[in-house]
Design goal:
alpha/beta; TIM Barrel; 8-stranded parallel beta sheet; two-stranded antiparallel ribbon; 14 helices; 12 strands; about 40% helix; globular; binds flavin mononucleotide
Length: about 375
Amino acid sequence: MINTEQVKNPAECTAAELAAIFQIDEFEHAARARLDPMAFAYFVGGAGRELTLERNRAAWDALSIWYRVMVDVSRRSTATTLLDLPLSFPLLAAPTALHKMAHPEGELATVRACGEAGIPMVLSSLSTTSVEEVCAAATAPVLFQMYIGPDRGFVRELVNRVERAGCRAIQLTVDAPVWGLREREMRSGFHVPPHLRIVNLERIDPQGATGPTGHTGVGISETLGWTISPNLSWKDLEWLCSLTTLPVIVKGLCRADDALTAVRSGARGIVVSNHGGRQLDGAPSTADALPRIAQAVASRVPVIVDGGIRQGVDILRALALGATAVQIGRPILWGLACAGQPGVKRVIDILASDFDRSMALAGCATVAAVTRDLLRPSEA
Ligand SMILES: Cc1cc2nc3c(=O)[nH]c(=O)nc-3n(C[C@H](O)[C@H](O)[C@H](O)COP(=O)(O)O)c2cc1C
């Protein structure tokens, strides 16, 4: 078992063991066996009774696919684009914090695996590797996730830093005016292990000391409460957009009216997300929220969705509901905990081949052929 206080040599899955894993849920089991219980509780948990966490998964499962037959699918392409960025298939690694709590190589292992697979990584602002190091190791686009915290001067500096590092877009997370109450974290005594640093949020002063505040305490509210602010409004989105030429994508919406306001305030993309069921317990599943938002924004900006995507066929379902691409959070962490870069690569490969096979079985030779009627065919 990995001791997250001093991660050194986790007992990693061998190549043969990785090749024998076919389902993301098997990865979760394998990761659980390798992770410190506190780290596993932080990664796996949702808020409250975890209703929304469960709903996310169940809602994708409930969607039947009315496949087409007698379509020539001998030459298929899963490739697509998102804001002009190339994707080998419609998947991004969602922003998740603290990758070094899963594996000593942390975000570097993740970004290298994403590069090998040809998909973008969204780097969390709460990463344990700096944005500069991650971008230097990247061979596919890196997007940067951020919160607007109370120190707006610091936000401005961070935006400049992210631009200089070479990130291709910003995902602004807006579903966290306060942190959800994640009971598993509280029970397991979640804290940031002392050997890890949330490097992007440290401000280096001339003496080399770090700030703006530490990240001590137990539970996410105490530990990371200083990174978010409860007084944001749409004006802050306009302000962020005015600071940068990078596209700003707003992450964490479930309502069509909010999506329209976000677009009017400068958003160049939307992520339908409930933070993987970690914020408001009782929020709708993202599969329920997605079609309303996709219909409202009507192709003006791309719509991404995350939450409970665990199979390639879920990507097909999301595209049929109007998404341009999907993100996965926990599956990446499970792959990382099992075997670092090859583990993340195997997770992505499982989804890529399942998506490709599902496209063929549904009678779709291209991503553009994945249309709404696959879920609701008209009567003949
Ligand atoms: C352990 C963990 C840490 C996360 N950290 C962040 C974060 O730093 N910023 C953010 O916007 N979302 C964060 N999220 C939410 C993810 O970006 C994403 O919305 C969610 O994980 C998708 O659901 P899934 O895990 O079911 O795929 C985190 C999720 C998890 C599980």
